[in-house]
# Entry
Amino acid sequence: MDSTTHSPRSLDEQVVAYFENNEGCVKTTEAVIPPPTGCSETVQTLYSIAQWHVFTIIVAALFLGMLVSLTMSIFSKGGGH
# Structure
């Protein structure tokens, strides 16, 4: 692993790493970000999408929605008991 690559850190990078390993385009057992140029167009596209952190934003939004819903149910009339 050189200085321009790193191991997967975020949820988005973990998805890319899964496809790298599944495709066998990494020579080690640990995937690297960014993916090697020998990986398929699918892996390269997933990496481009991962740079936007779409999956992380979705998980955070779902958590926030659940938190708001729980808070609203606690403060609603007759709720929380």
In short: The first helix runs from residue 11 to 23. The two ends are 55 Å apart (CA to CA). The mean pLDDT is 86. Residues 25 and 39 are 5 Å apart (CA to CA).
